[in-house]
Amino acid sequence: MSAAARRPNDLNPPPPSDAPDVAAYFEALAYFEEASVDAFDALRSELEVHGAPRPLVAAAARASDDERMHARIARTLAMRFGGRPSLPPAAPRGARTLEEIALENATLGCIRGSYGAAVVRVQAVRASDPVVRAAMKRLAPEEARHAELAWAVHGWICARTGPLVRDALITAQRDELVVLGEELMFEHDAVLIDVIGLPTANQARALVARLVQERRIAA
Ligand SMILES: [Fe+2]
Questions:
Q1: pLDDT at 12
Q2: Per-residue pLDDT, 3
Q3: Can you tell me the distance from the alpha carbon of 40 to that of 5, in angstroms, rounded to the nearest whole number?
Q4: Which residue, 14, 22, 39, 96, has fewest beta-carbon neighbours within 10 Å?
Q5: Cα of 177 to ligand 1 centre, how many Å?
């Protein structure tokens, strides 16, 4: 399952679904997109607290608005396929240190966010269902922008922290890539590859390889 959304790392997975595959996919997507609204909102206020440049704060605010719309789109798609989307629990969160923010951003924002955005780009072209294709076309540039925001936040934090933190973030990104690679050993059901255009396992691994190359992440 690859839902392009910025989920907080302490978020529980969505409740198990007895809906058919496609509906269950969009139930999960709706759940994670909704969680992303709060995640970007929290990021916006944390960036403000830590004195981030205004464009980063503004981009986080815009991303939260984007995610509100993504959640609505995903809920509509879930219901269209017979699913019953649920909302994630409210996750009030205390202020975090810059290092805590950096770690979540480096892994979930940069790695998972970039990969998720790449998957949505594929879906926007390959989904056989025209409504899904149109929805993914709408989401794709915004998810790409969110991934860029994560890398911009990563760059800002790396520039103001020492080599120890930077090395820890690079190690965490490599570890996240290993976990992602293990998840991509398994093929999605054919209906997900067809109807919603998810990449095959081989295609997914190629997307990761491209991400590693583009971002120059050393093995
Ligand atoms: Fe999203």
A1: 81
A2: 53
A3: 10
A4: 96
A5: 20
**Confidence at residue 75, expressed as pLDDT on a 0 to 100 scale:** 97
Q: Looking at the chain, how many residues does it have?
A: 219
Q: Which amino acid is at 117?
A: A
Q: How far is the CA of 162 from the centre of ligand 1 (A)?
A: 32
Task: Profile the chain (219 residues) by mean pLDDT over runs of 10 residues.
Answer: 61 83 96 94 94 98 97 97 91 83 96 97 98 98 97 96 93 96 94 97 96 87
- The pLDDT value given to residue 118: 97
Ligand 1 centroid, distance to 20 Cα (angstroms): 22
pLDDT score of 66? 98
CATH code given to domain 21-87+96-214: 1.20.1260.10
Residue ranges per structural domain of the chain: 21-87+96-214
Question: What is the model's pLDDT at position 95?
Answer: 79
